[in-house]
Design goal:
70% of the residues lie in helices and 2% in strands. Strands 1-2 form a two-stranded antiparallel ribbon. The longest helix is centred in the last third of the chain and has 31 residues.
Amino acid sequence: MESRNPIFSRRGTAGQQAWSTPAPSVQQLNDMYGAPSYAPPSERTMTIDDVVVRGSMTLGTLVVSAALAWYFDVGLGVAVLAGIVGLVLGLIVSFRQSTNPALILGYAVAYGIAIGALSQAYEARFNGIVVQAVLGTMVAFGGTLAVYALKIFRPTPKFTKFVIAAGFGALGLVLINWIASIFVTGGLGLRTDSPVGWIFSVAMILLGCFFLLLDFAEIERSARAGVPERYSWLMAFGLTLSLVWLYLEILRFISYFTNND
């Protein structure tokens, strides 16, 4: 009786087995033994240079979009709509930890349009304020990078938790202040030209620098851990988000001490 096994078949005496296909030669066995085992191609790991390149692309896209929005004078309505789109895309990237370049560059375009229109409005009231805010942002970025690179301070897990909690708290206060401003002029005073507003702006600028420290630490940790190269897009998004935060807060803070022309 023939066995149902496709490789072996029972023929002749009981217990005797024979190959149903020709037996491989010695050379074939040697070739099979010496062949390398299959390994699926692995993705290239992320480097700091990858983050620099992706960060330059993301920030450059934002700057170009802002310049075009300024040049074409897109108006407040378009700026508000672009800001909402940018906020939605930013939340999607943040909560899903997405590495999709289209989402991240889309965020840069949308927020660039909003920032361009907002900067134009500030410049119309306070001549030269945009250049001052850009320089202030560059100084804050360079100073924070120097503090991290020279190992003057490195974020600890406790510090990271504090910064994240403070960030959510600050955003909550801004929302409450906005709701209160509907009923009371100036709301809680957090965004007014007053000592309370000055202190809150300084706190927000410091918080932006703290987020930059977390970004630098995450980039270094991820590069050492050998995460896939596509995560450089997520790191670039984090840096751009922190720089946007810094720029807007510095712009507002300088406006408190700049005379209208």
